[in-house]
């Protein structure tokens, strides 16, 4: 249903730990956005944490079976402000998901509430579980 292959994610995480990431006092590449994914009834639900991101700065694209979510957290401070501590990462966050053929990518819906982007991807009709009726063959009568 959802293929989880992102070979560079763990490399990025390790690099940030070794060389300092958010909280080091300097701007660093934001880590990819945390997510949860689960199946609920006839749909796959994927939620991304995007606190502090304006909904107009979120892009969701699907090309073939690749879903891409991009979001940008922009600075909100004025020009005459002297920053004392800056631990919240700014910049562009991006995440790609490889979707299985069993999902209906033409009917994806997206909602953003309280800093969480929730995508609902219906399972394609042909992929839904269905019950098969078992019949019996007619018996032949020996004459």
From TrEMBL:
SUPFAM superfamilies assigned to the protein according to its UniProt record, in alphabetical order: HSP20-like chaperones
Domain SHSP residue range list: 26-137
Family matches, as InterPro entries: A-crystallin/Hsp20_dom, HSP20-like_chaperone, Small_HSP
Domain of life: Bacteria
Pfam families cross-referenced by the UniProt entry: HSP20
Annotated family: Belongs to the small heat shock protein (HSP20) family.
Protein name: Heat-shock protein Hsp20
Organism: Actinokineospora bangkokensis
